[in-house]
Amino acid sequence: MAGLDRNVHDRTVDPRIKMSSTAASSPWRRARRPLERPTEPVEHTRWLFFVIALVSLLLTAPGALVGTGAAGLTLLAVSCLALIVSWTHRYRSRTASPALDVVDILAATAFALACPMPAVAYGIAFPAMWFRVWYGRTWRVGAYAVGFGAALVTATLAWGVVPGHADTTDAGPVVGALPVLGLTFIGARHLALGMLAREQTRGRDSALLTLGTGLLGLTDPKAIRDQGWRAVEEICRMTPGLRAVAVADADGEGFLRVVARAGHFDRDLATLPLDLLPAGGGPNEIQEVARPGLLGEAAGFTRQWLRMPLPAFPGHSTLFPGHSMLLGAPDALPTEAVTALQSLNNQVALALRSSQAHRDLETQALTDALTGLANRAAFTSALDAATRDATGRTWVLFLDLDDFKVVNDGLGHTAGDQLLRHAASRMLGGLRDQDLCARLGGDEFGVLLRDAGEDEAGQISQRLVELLSAPITLEGRLTQVGASVGLARLQSGATGTEVVQQADLAMYAAKAAGKNRVQAFSPTLLDVTPTSALEAELRQAVDDGQFVVHYQPIVSTTDGRCLAVEALVRWAHPMRGLLSPAAFLDVAERTGVVIAIGEQVLRQACADAATWHDGDREVALHVNASPSQLAHPRFVSVVRECLAEHALAPKRLIVEITESTVLDSPAVQVTLDVLAGLGVGIAVDDFGTGYSALTTLRSLPVDIVKIDKSFVAGAATEVADQAVLEAIAQMADRLGLQTVAEGVEYVEQQEFIQRAGITAVQGYLHQRPVPAEELAAWLALERSAQPPIGLRV
User: Fold this and answer.
1) Alpha carbon distance 132, 123 (integer Å)
2) How far is CA 275 from each of CA 52, 326, 658, rounded to the nearest angstrom?
3) pLDDT per position as a tens digit, 235-257
4) Which of 129, 155, 250, 506 is within CB 3.0–4.6 Å of 118 for a Cys-Cys bond?
5) pTM for this one?
6) Cα torsion 536, 537, 538, 542: sign
7) In terms of DSSP bridges, do strands 323-329 and 243-249 run parallel, antiparallel, or are they unpaired?
8) How many CB atoms lie within 10 A of CB 545?
9) Under 8 Å between Cβ of 246 and 293
10) Which of helix, strand or coil describes residue 475?
11) Kind of pairing, strands 620-624 and 653-658?
């Protein structure tokens, strides 16, 4: 118990620090009713010995009145009053001041002098000792016991000074009981220290339990640290004399900044010398502070101070080495308190790690993993918050990268991801700090412009278009895309859903107007015609990859073997099913979407054709090209890329054009010349339906003539059609051109076509347009069997 004794200082544990409302209010009840019995074990024991001391005084005083004169009666009254006042003050204040100890000893001397014999005063000495052992340090309690014994001896020696007493009295009873008084002090103090130690341990455990409960569900680091420091203060209160100071290195300024403190200090502390901390030591090692200096002066003692590394501190947002808790006590620091504080730090550190993990998860939940921008959920949340306080100065931008799918499919998904990251970085560079940029999915981005006027919103939008349209190197190749931006103002009273729909509609209007531009929302955009709706659907279909390629074989009329296949685009519409080009090609051509569609078809067809052979002969690939495609400056580059990527010989690719394609279009003629120079074949589709068929054959590098099916339909019966077919075949033969008859459905048609000298046929007689897998199976069957005659359809 000697170690425990050093922790029981002049001010002992006050139960008012307990968390319960009953304990919190009990001091006020005791102030009104000092004799009310407390429920806490230590307080109850104090109360019990306080009552016993008072009752013992009341029971012993009448015995002192026997044979007492006026002087003795006065001494008795004064001593009883002094003892009652002193004991009551000690019980209520829970302190044992030296002055009151002196009062007790003087009052005990007077009480002994007032009694018939000094030994009668032992009736109050023993209860007073039991009561006194619950307050203050052991050496002072011992001094109190010695003082009480000295008071009785003094009264025995001064017995004759009181009027009415004999000159001397028998000292034997007094002296003989003194050893018992000493043993009473030792035993009572031992029991008191044990109960006080258990009370302190229970208080510290309660503080740790309260901390653990309070940390449950906390994710705010500051709240966690504040809760932890309150527990430190609680432990200091439950361990009398314990002081704690949290310090932090003041960022290389040569001193320690006091972050927080707990326990009693004689004066304020704001900074401490940096050399106060011991050098060396591990990150979790507790070290002794050899020279406490100012710290000891402020606390009022310098005997022992320890440094405990802190995992966290109030007011700081990060955990890093260099922050410490300094612990001190007038005597030796209690091991139990140090252990409790270590456990507390571990709880706080664990809570902070959990908090960080929670924040990381929150960040992940609101962040796009690829670009690091906010994601759709974060954008929606910010937009909802903005709608609650809309002032007309908040804008929503919807942004879609133009031709992103072409890059993603042509250069690969790695390049596509790289492009998205570059786009995100460029957008952040073009926005202000208060703006929010989010990736909504795929190549769509959303921007929330806060506190911007109409002109400023337009300027920021245009700056984004310019930044995103700048060339970029992907996979070692210079690439360029654009951006279509829809801009809508968040009006007061509007919902987030409404403004998002407006920005989305404006974005599609920007695409329809030619892409790579900004379109502000206006009510006129709501007047959607069927054609404009189809335009929007087409652009979305390009982005979503809804276009598929079917293939129809071109068969030799001499041996029935497959010479080539024609790639035919189909739209796998999510609502209307599989659509033929007739349902959308005109609109696609007019709006420019046909360029992206054609590039997708070309890339997919080349990938499929690279695997097809008919025996030892490679199958050629026919791909249709629109005037817009042929006039586009990237068309030849895309053709080169496709041939190189799939190791296709240029002669295996046949670009089909119509007669009207080259009318008044020098750019198209130049493209065809370049393709012919590469070795790519040129075929004229639907030959005979235009007004310049012969001019086309004479002026362009044509290799193949595909005769329109309108002439083939009457090949078996119509004399005029037969004459046209024979004339085209003879002319092509003299020009060295191959011929293909389209739309062959019957055997009779093919028989005449063959007699007319046409070299190949294409139509339902041999195969309908089918997906790549079915065509591959058809080719395998065609190689293993006789050339099929076909079915009548």
Assistant:
1) 15
2) 54, 13, 90
3) 888 888 888 888 887 666 677 88
4) 155
5) 0.48
6) positive
7) antiparallel
8) 13
9) no
10) coil
11) parallel
